[in-house]
Write a structure and sequence with these properties.
- The protein is of the alpha+beta class.
- The chain has three helices and seven strands.
- The protein has one domain: Aspartate Aminotransferase, domain 1 (Alpha-Beta Complex).
- About 15% of the residues have low confidence.
């Protein structure tokens, strides 16, 4: 005798395109739109030192690189998306880390990626205190990540 899988009802697609804020499976907050921007502002303020300044600068460059990028809050950190995740921004004790979801598939002629280099999909940029990232090269990397997402 073969066992049949029980029929399940298809889930309804969400009709909300506005901001949302709900707990994730891990208990962390999720948000998009204005609510996410507020949470990112709070995170930058909470970091307070050079890490907050660095994250703020990188956020500005991300939004300048592609005004169509959406700000989100997932996994208790800022997430920038356009047709998929472009990158996340995290503040640690010694670095601000920007992790590109599909960074391994991106050309990096300026060598900005300096972390998570062994992974098959992601790549990251670790920015320690006192270090600045070349704005033009970073914006080009953001635009390349958006283009990669749009290809899919």
């Amino acid at each position: 005798m073969s066992k049949r899988k029980p029929k399940t009802k298809p889930r309804k697609a969400s009709s909300t395109t506005s901001s949302f804020r709900q707990p994730s499976k891990a208990g962390a907050e999720k948000a998009s739109g204005k609510e996410a921007s507020k949470l990112i502002d709070e995170r930058i303020r909470d970091l307070g030192d050079w890490r907050g300044e660095t994250l703020s600068r990188m956020r500005t460059l991300i939004l300048e690189a592609d005004p169509g990028i959406a700000e989100e809050w997932k996994w208790r950190c800022p997430v920038w998306s356009r047709d998929g995740i472009v990158c996340t921004g995290e503040g640690y004790k010694n670095v601000v880390k920007l992790t590109f979801a599909r960074g391994a598939s991106l050309a990096d002629p300026e060598g900005l990626f300096n972390s998570s280099l062994g992974g098959g999909t992601r790549r990251a940029i670790d920015i320690p205190e006192g270090k600045t990232v070349d704005a033009a090269a970073f914006k080009a990397l953001i635009r390349a990540a958006v283009a990669r997402n749009m290809e899919r």
